[in-house]
Protein 1
Amino acid sequence: MRLFERSVRVLCLLSFAGDPEKQREVAAITSEVAREGRVRQIRELGGLASLALHQTCRSASGDNSGLARSAASLAAPAAFYVVASSLGTTLDATSGVAWFGVVLLALAGVASACRNRPLTLTLALLATGPAVASAGPAITVALSIAIAASVASPPRRRQPKVPSLARVYLVLGLFVGLCVLAGLPLLSDGPVRVATIVIASTLIVFGLFDPRYALVAAVVFGCRFATFDLVGLAEALGSLGRDLTIDELVVRWLAMTAGLIASLLTARRSIARSWMI
Amino acid sequence: MGKRLREQSTFILAVLASGRSHGYAIISSVDELSDGRLKLTAGTLYGALERLEKAGLVERAGEESAGGPPRRYYEITKTGRQALAEEVAQLNEAVEQLRGVGLALP
């Protein structure tokens, strides 16, 4: 089977998880239309990807009623990661990433407990126990965010072959945890900033079709904003006024402001679109 | 007033207003009706059809197979015709308002 057909099948499966007939119908029409050529194939894949985002948003949050709670459960680990990696005095970026893994595991545990999944809960507790014991007060804050988000998150409908949020957190957390245990070099401060920008930009693009991702991007930018070095920024703005030298801090602050505005506007547009037929 | 219709939904309803149709034919008809301006992908079409079905503006109208794979047909409902008429009336009203402020519209 060619890559195009395989991609179509996966996207149809994500879009209509509980309706095999619909999956076949949409896949057949897509293949029929895509005979026009390569450009059309790319357009069709783009259309199916946006449909998959729409449908997963709808299945996770209902008809907008559970949107905020669903977005909160996605934004909690992102918020913790950004805050943890921004607290440069007590945490360097590496420990921020490691803690992110710990929190993902904890979140998986809480989500599993909420949904009565004893196996993933046990795994998560075993993996997080020693780390939580030595982590200090920040982890308590992070866990509070995670627990609040998990409790607030709406119960997911069972869908075959679509991974549950708890499983996603668990796999991500185990990956980061194993990297730490194996002593593999994790992200340093520079790549963390680049990763934040790349991930947040991707979230904004996804947010065009699923408002939850735009809201997560807004949280990421908002947390960066909240933990920004304001004293340093004031000094940088002062030197900009004195001798017109543009400090890196000013550029970062402007980029964050632009990112925050873009993500909020995208979320607003996406939510407005989801109210139209 | 109910939910507003997106542009592609209006065109899909307009195509179905002239008779029941299946996915591939709807894509071709919308392309023709909009003079090639609106090129629906299968993803956009089925997303729109699902929203229209949920809102009760469109319903399934059987399956047929003429040599190839079976095709599912869709048809507009009475509510769908009303929604289309309302949407067209609103668009006309907007055009009249713009003419009223002196814009030279065709």
Protein 2
Amino acid sequence: MSPETKTQAALEVLDLTVAFGPSASPHIVLSGISFQLGKNEILGIVGETGAGKSVLAQALLGLLPGDGRITQGSVTIAGKPIAAMSEGERRRLRGGTISLIGTNAKALLDPVERVGKQISRVLRIHRPCSRGQAWKETIDLLDKVGIVDPERRARAYPHELSGGMAQRIIIAMALITHPAIILADDATLGLDATVQVQVLDLLVERARQLGVSVVLITHDLGIIAHYCDRVAVMRDGKIEELQPVEHFLAQPQTAYSTSLLGAARAKPTRGDRLAAPVASAETGMDKDRILVVDNLCKTFDIGGGQPPVIAVDRVSFSLERGETLALVGESGSGKTTIGQCLLRLLPPNSGVIRFDGQDIATMEEPKLRPLRRRMQMVFQEPYVALNPRWRVSDLIAEPLDLLDRVPQTERRRRVDELLEMVQLPQHLARAYPHELTAGEQKRIGIARALATKPDFVVFDEPTTALDIRVRAQIIDLIRALQQDMGLSALFITHDLNSVRSLAHNVIVLNRGRIVELGLTEEIFEAPKDPYTRTLLAAELPIEWSDTRRSGAGRSPVVALGA
Amino acid sequence: MRTWLMRPGAAFGAALLLLQVIAIVFAGLLAPYSPTTADPLHTLMPPSASHLLGTDVYGMDILSRIIYATRINLLVSITAVAGAFAIGVPLGLIIGFYSGIPSAIVMRLFDFIQSFPVFVLGMALVSVLGQEIWNVALVLAILFVPVFARLVRAEVLSLRQRPFISAARCSGATDRSIMFRHILPNAMTPALVQLSISVGMAILLTAGLSFIGAGVRMPTPEWGLMVSSGAQQLILGVWWVSLFPGIAIVLAVLCFALLGDELRILLDPRRRHR
């Protein structure tokens, strides 16, 4: 990299090494990170949990937590190394020249202050102007980041806003000082796919218009493919490769990148999947159906004299033996509530749930208990669904202890068998949940659900919050288990890719109602309902195309340092 | 456990506890005099070689009385708190798990007990029941039941909502198995920490009740009573009668407060390995 290019770069990082812990035996978190960020460039940084992405963002802002420190190398922003800056200069830098958009916008906003005030305060710190002037600029900007009725929204408190709206507020806060660089650290994590594309479209479009450079930190290769000019792949605190996205997608240079792309693109061929059972609602005798749901309703009282919230509104469907049905929809569509009603973790308000011919919607708990061994659930968040004080062997064996009452030797044999089934080593039987990775915890959850050899399993968001490669492994595992055990499964998810690879039939839910129901292929290829179309359009396939999102004003790839 | 004892707070607390246990077990061997024999010829003697901590207004040896008093003070406090724990924890578990009208009634009863200043209620109850040492223990137990029950109930209320409870229900667990196998072990930590802190508080209360004359009576060796018997002499420059039992109270309370704090660290499940 020649020194002449330096003047071009908005941000230059050279051989950056960051360490935590005692200086005698430091824990190196980042080592030898070097890259340049060109003016008006969008650089994606992708990597799995623990790769050091967030620490990098913190180092760039000079905000390393605890005893973290830069032990080597330099960060140069707009031609000036941050190490040479005074504390005051650094403060002006943060929020003024370089600003951060973090994950979980609602937690980043002060809950007791109006959001407009919080934005205008940032402006007034960096550029002296009157309150009135700052407020006016805030309203203008809120309008530009797509907030309807900005005057009123600016006077709202954070809890009055939706997640997507709060994220826009954070974006406005980052843009208000016209910074040269924006760091977006997993800025859309936890948002629904449709909201995610809206927020990212907006951020990238604004950045292109204003000539701002952006570092997009993410673990979603779809986001990289659609919004970034160049991509840096991080692993274990190092940059594995750095090149234009187009080349990266076509020809990754390292084996690690290849495996990441492979895992993210994994789309099963049709033959891969179970032969669809005779299927479709009209045919099929009642005895072929393991589950029949008729007019299920569930409301929640929110108190305060307000009318109850209708979470599930007259939902009817049925499930054949050996069938996999996916329930898709955004957050708040009622899909998890339906799953919990089916297993009677929540009592339904009305409707019939017939499991293998018996109506369980109103069945007494003692009568229901023997049926529980035949219907199980894999819970959404793996860690919190495991008792933190129990060892893995006891966690897996709990259903056996409660329902099958097997002798000790048999119990141990079954635990080993189940661990093998979910592809975990046997020595983990003695571990506690907090000693496991998220993927391992998920597998334990699956092993628990399969312990009693159930006929029907509800998988609640089995792939969310997992890294790309772990996600692919879990999907493979579920598919293999279903083939071996002939399970009937209800798949609750918003990850459309996993639906494609696992489900025979799909139900699309919106606000507690079924908007579309049918064969997976048909719905994905020819969605009839406008809501389904919106959902599908929000997907970001990992492919290079010239019609990328928000092409507006997109600059040609600046092949800096290439 | 070993690394835990390396912590200064834990080591100091454990050492103090050991000291008290030795005093309780070997009081007969350690005490140079009988704790209850008056000696009219040697009253209010300052600390000297024959009476290391001096004598009181009856001529009784203060060191011997402090050693013997450990038995009374500690045993009363520990019995009272243990009783309160044994009743309060299951009660808290039940009223936390089943929130209904009976639970609400129990909670209001706790409000009633706790709305009185502890000293006033303690005095009233002891004078109704009679100034017996075990009545003091009973009164303390009554005062501490709501403390434990409330702590456990609060934990249960939040644990009840956790997904692993739903997961257990899915696995076919009954209410009883959920309560005792899942909720109770996870709800115990604050109660166990409170256990140790409460013993310290009970020591202070026992001594306090005796000090104001609502606890045990002379000549029983008891720290609070000893402080009170020396209080009138303080103005005459006789400081040793009150000071030494006072130090004993401070050290005993400190010991259990320290152990309680350190217990919290020891009981964190994330500290456990393999």
Protein 3
Amino acid sequence: MLYVEHIWVHDMDLLLQRVFDAVTNGSTYALIAVAMVLIFKATTLINFAQGEQAMLGAFVVLQLWDWGVPMWGAVAIGMCFSGVLAAFLERALIRKFDPADHLPLVIITLGLFLVINAVAAIIWRFDPKSFPELFPSGNAFAINNIRLSWYTIFAFTSCVIVLFVLQTLLSKTKIGLAFRAVSSNIESSRLSGIKIGTTLQFGWALAAAAGTLGASIYAANPVLQIEPSMMLRALILSVTAAALGGLDSLWGALIGGLTIGFVQSVVVQYIPFIPNEMSLSAAVIVLLIVLIFRPSGVLGTRAVERV
Amino acid sequence: MRAPVLRVEGLEATYGPMQVLYGIDFSVYHQEIVVVLGANGAGKTTTLRSISGMIETKGLIEFKQEEIGNLRPSEIVRRGVAHVPQGRGTFPELTVQENLRVGAFIRVDKDVSADIDACYQNYPILYERRTQMAGSLSGGEQQMLAVSRALMSRPQLLLMDEPSLGLAPKIVEDLFERLVAINTEYGTTMLIVEQNAQLALSIANRGYVLESGSISVQGTAENLVKNDAIRRAYLGA
């Protein structure tokens, strides 16, 4: 009897630990996912370079920190840097093409993906570097084997704050209203005097800044290090998270991110016939199942009909 | 006569390889309501889209004695031209109130909220639905919203593309009454493209008939109503 109870307690510990892991990973996927949601809302385009833009931003943060800039100051400057870079990329590459024709645009974002990855590798090399700790280290509490780290708490809180800030920006400011108008009806936006190009540029900058914050938090995970390919896996999971939550829903990105994090750590732990190596595919399979029943994602309004 | 608010000369427009307008000339004077009649594909919508800068054109488009033919739509709205496109052109995912705010996007003055209240007074149903998504409105309500949205930019010239399309006769009548009221109250000049020739001519001062990209007949509304060819083609007489 005593023995059984012991196992049960142990299992509960493990489950909770796995849930905390899910929240940790899910929050960072959500931050990259929300960047993709911003671009999708405005253009119904998935920006495959989003993860690499975020990685580049995180490297800039690291570089600034190396030069002695205080870490949150470095994050702020890094976010501004990637925002300005994204605004430039939108103007120089994206705006030249017909927004309704997605194939050239998808190829451009894939090209950007490769170029940014190569540039980061040339400047910073492929050997992993440790990233400054953005949050207090250690555990908020630790009982038996349950450890809730400050990192998990702060990663999740940052994600919720970012979503609130973005939501407020989109619903309470004039540029936010313009952004939502463009995403709802481009022709009437033009007829209302909204400059479409400038508005989309704003969306790209906002998305890149959010992505850089996400990548910085991701890299600040004590168990991870920063290197040019660190976002490859995160990108796939973030796209999956964005699609799962609804590609045009900010809060859907959080739900999607947490779900993917959950599938990755909990389902793989408890369903024995799914090997660990399959955790990435398991996330995509969950996405497929959700999209069969809700084609526009959990909170989305537009079906995923184009890439 | 005074200089026209809108003067169009030798306007040509093409969609890809297809020419739609073959050099049309017309004018709209201050506080006039002018209607453009014509069959489907005659070039009515293209005419309006040319004026609001949505397509590239050849020829002269002058608004208040200034050439606007080469300007972007965002600049043309700022000069005082509002365009209600065919199919209403509201923002379905935005609330009624947000739609009106987008309509006032170009304005920097402090009277926007007062103007929104004025819209609500004219259309109490929009006030009731102010927090609803525009996409959930009925066709008639959407057209009220579309007109209100266009007026929020305080235009001197209002372009309307088939305002009666898909609406019940009673709602169309109310809408046209409202257009007349706006015309008298604010002195807004109007250029209306319309299939419902009978009703359009009943509120218009003058009219033009477009046929295959050229103007075939023009005149005062009274003369057009009496014109035999027009009666046969557009008034079902």
